[in-house]
Amino acid sequence: MGNTTRVKSEEMIGRIDGRLMKNKVIKGIFLAATVFTSIILIILLYRIISQGAPYLSWDFFQNFASRRPEQAGIKAAVVGTLWMMSVVIPTAAILGVGTAIYLEEYAKKNALTRWIQMNISNLAGVPSVVFGLLGLTIFVRVLGFGNSVLAAGFTMALLVLPVVIVASQEAIRAVPNELKEASFGLGATKWQTIYRVVLPYAIPGIATGSILAFSRAIGETAPLIVVGIPTFVAFLPSGYLDSFTALPMQIYNWTSRPQVDFHNLAAAGIIILLGVLILMNSIAVWIRNRYQAR
Amino acid sequence: MKPVKVLTLSALVGSALVLGACGGNADTGTKTEDGAGDQAGAGDAQLQGEISIDGSSTVYPIAEAVAEEFMLEQPDVKVTVGLSGTGGGFEKFIAGETQLTNASRPIKDEEAKALADAGIEYTELELAYDGLSVVVNKDNDWVDQLTVDELKKLWLDNGSTKKWSDIREGWPEEEIKFYSPGTDSGTFDYFDEVILDGGQIDKSATLSEDDNVLVQGVTGDANAIGYFGYAYYLENKDNVKVVPIVNEAGDAVEPNHETIESGEYAPLSRPLFTYVSNAAFADDEAVAAYTQFTLENASVLAEDVGYVSLPEEKYTEQLETLEGLK
User: Fold this and answer.
1) How sure is the predictor about A12, in pLDDT bands with cuts at 50, 70 and 90?
2) Which positions in chain B touch A230 (Cβ < 8 Å)?
3) Are B134 and B243 in contact (CB under 8 A)?
4) Does ipTM surpass 0.85 in this model?
5) What element of type H or E holds A175?
6) For testing the chain B interface, which of A147, A257, A260, A261 should be mutated: the one with the most B CBs within 10 Å?
7) B6-129+271-323 topology per CATH
């Protein structure tokens, strides 16, 4: 009997070597994946910055688009993107968080809600061009907004809405039941509980998810092309029904031009776009940290 | 945006747009007087208005240049230019959303019919020439020239992969790689008309809407062949080799400024168009001034952005046609 135990433990020792080996291999694979991704990212950033940085100047921000690369600027696109986001953010936030609160806190958990829930999740995966077609039909043509800030803003809001809803739902669902029950126990109404307990607890999650979704709206080109947003605009919008152009449109146009100078301008435009995205993501992180600290 | 227009639109879309109206009134009345005085031609009076233009991305650089110059003379006319592509541009033109639309091919019958149904009369204007350039890799030392028949043999799908030796005897037995603009582009449509004649393009062809992708494809493969606008060839002269094409007279002609302008480079020289709505031209002073400005300056501006200008008398003729529309 003692003999067999010894054999077994020897076998085990043999296997441990194998397992440790396996552990190392797996670790190596994951490390390689990380290194590979980082290298690609670094090459990409290096190329964009080395191409675009020489073109970044005060004039680049001050000038409108031009056929002469040295005079071309990105003013209309930067301002246009900000105008568009001033429609996207309130629209998507109000509709998105509203829907999430309703679905999580008020709606009965029946077949209909599940069906709505499933559709929202599916919508998050619909290609952005489809939202562009929807925007073209409804906002541009039926409602007559034309290719304005409002039409593009609403289209982009619809595009990011499913993501905002799902993110907000996750955040609301993560609120501990004990907190809500305590609130009800103290005699608070449903709305008081949502306003005083659920939302403050859920805001970091809602903000993080939403801002990542809004970042997507800044970078999308396809819906804007379908909606018919122009590329050459040498004035700033003065109202929500004015024409405008956006950063991705300008970048798309510059990359498809034959002249190398325009490709470099596109790189400069991408740096600006990245800057705006980093800024937005930093705000998300800041909001999260601020609320979590409480 | 004019207060009047804001009011009409607000009335249309109702109270949801109060925001738009507020913003719209904020910036009117900033009329700039300087820089207008001594400009000749259509730019004498200070005009106001909005002009939307869309259409071909090939014509876009010319339209951008014209709009840029026009707005220096008429800062209160807000010109916007989009690049939905020739087909997409016509769609918006038919819907009455644009006053002018750019096209890198002539209007198609079904588009003309849709415009007739919509009651939109239009005038076709030629702005410049482009020479579709057929290019091969720098290391390709066998292709010296191609006839239209050889181009057909090359590009039409015959159900199997093609080798260079299938096209002409003595050429290497290597598989040909094809690079073509996407089927939505006017460039493809034009090539389709003069070479493919409606036939299926070789199914192995790489199609891309971005001509720079085609340039890269041909640069990177010794057995590649592709075609794109002259401006892209001009920028990449050192990376690719252009193929002379045999015209009807039997001469092998390389695309360059002279051969494209004279029409010697045939059949791959094509005119670039803009279409203007007759009603918009007659009723809207800004559109009229802009269209005339386009023809008056197209020759210089087209050359500036890499296209070939028409002979001067063509522009004069077209300006006279326009006079008849007023």
Assistant:
1) confident
2) 52-54, 80-82
3) yes
4) no
5) none
6) A257
7) D-Maltodextrin-Binding Protein; domain 2 (3.40.190)
